[in-house]
Amino acid sequence: MKIERRKSRAAEVYTASLNDIMFFLLLFFLIISTMVTPATIRVLLPKSKTTDDAVIKKQINLAITADHKYFLDKTEISFSEIEPRLTKIMASKSKNEEALVLLQADKSLNLQEVIDVIDIGNKLDVKVVLFTKKSEK
């Protein structure tokens, strides 16, 4: 009688499908990351045909929402606080640094409210740039 020894089998993990899974996970996160916008204040910008992207060194973001709320760098402030805060920011900047106020005003606002903020900038000798949205032709 012949006794056969069983061949020992090595345990094996089949990993061919893991490549597909990793590819789909990578693709999923790339697509989702492009859809996520940073936490910003939503303002409907008016349209302009001559809008360009501005590259500047020091930006001071000032937003005015449709319900007359003022935000200076994502911090809600009252209208009377705009001038003292801008004065403090301008005092803290260095000599070779150019500061620019980026004004995002909702298009439903009265024009006088926007002009009042621009006047504060002119009084403090700060450049104020009004954001617009490029219109589709």
Q: What does this 3D model show about the protein?
A:
The structure is a single chain. The chain is an alpha/beta fold and 137 residues long. The chain has a domain at 47-134: 2-Layer Sandwich (Nucleotidyltransferase, domain 5), CATH 3.30.420. Helix content is 32%, strand content 20%. The protein has three helices and seven strands; from the N terminus they run αββββαβαββ. It has a five-stranded mixed β-sheet, covered by helices on one side. A two-stranded parallel sheet has the order 1-7. Helix 3 (111-123) links the parallel strand 5 (99-105) and strand 6. The longest helix has 20 residues, at 16-35. The protein starts with 15 loop residues before the first helix and ends with a strand. The relative contact order is 0.17. The model has no long low-confidence stretch (mean pLDDT 81).
